[in-house]
Write a structure and sequence with these properties.
This protein has 232 residues and is an alpha+beta fold. Helices cover 25% and strands 23% of the residues. The protein contains 5 helices and 9 strands; from the N terminus they run ββαββββααααβββ.
Length: 232
């Protein structure tokens, strides 16, 4: 679960060259109120920009820059996932994109696109569309899940329930809760699934797909099934 701690920005939209900061750690929940135009939506834009390089509202990216200063736009967000603390820094003029984990800057040798992909797939485990449907909601732009197009609904579900990405964690969590010698049967209909046996904490993993497929469904039932035994 993502637990936001702080968000700060400067030269972002109508805000000037001094950082505006909101601390979410002072209480278990935070309520922000204000009149129209006070800047409440700016918080959502800042969070989406720093995480996904695009604002929450339909605003062209160049328009995010404070028009008076015209440079040094910076947004920083701090959050935790599990026992890891993250800080993301993104800016324009000059361009900045940095990811810190427990105060250590992650490798920036990869292209910016790959760096963004790592943030979404390995840290947040959400893309922009899913994030704006289940984490932050805006009354003006939010579309109820069942009113989304079929393709959009499928994309969100697959992003949340990515079995290829999450199967190692799911299986290891189950093995941890089992007694030594316990048997876990893992099955999925994801046709492109590849089990990451090296990362699973068991040396007894057997592919039983064929043995568990009814003979009248052979060649037609696309699935995978494994028998995994927890070590003694």
């Amino acid at each position: 679960m993502i637990k936001f701690k702080k968000i700060r920005w400067k030269n972002f939209l109508s805000t000037g060259g001094q950082f505006t900061e909101i601390d979410f750690t002072k209480s278990s929940s935070t309520l922000i109120v204000g009149e129209n135009g006070a800047g409440k939506s700016t918080i959502l834009d800042a969070i989406c920009f720093v995480l996904f390089n695009k604002p929450f509202r339909n605003i062209n990216k160049p328009q995010l820059m404070n028009t008076i200063n015209g440079k040094l736009l910076v947004v920083e967000v701090e959050f935790s996932i599990g026992n890891k603390d993250y800080r993301i820094v993104r800016g324009m003029k000059p361009g900045i994109f940095e990811i810190y984990c427990n105060d250590v800057l992650l490798n920036q040798d990869a292209a910016a696109r790959d760096y963004q992909k790592y943030l979404e797939e390995s840290i947040l485990k959400l893309n922009y569309k899913s994030f704006t449907q289940i984490v932050i909601l805006g009354s003006a732009s939010f579309t109820p899940f069942m009113q989304l197009a079929l393709g959009s609904r499928r994309e969100i579900i697959e992003d949340i329930l990515d079995i290829q990405r999450d199967h190692v964690e799911l299986i290891n969590d189950m093995l941890k809760a089992m007694k030594p010698g316990g048997i876990l049967y893992f099955s999925t209909n994801f046709t492109q699934f590849i089990i990451d046996a090296e990362q699973i904490k068991s040396d007894q993993i057997k592919d039983i797909t064929k043995a568990t497929t009814p003979f009248d469904f052979e060649g037609r039932l696309k699935r995978w099934c494994y028998k995994i035994i927890k070590p003694l």
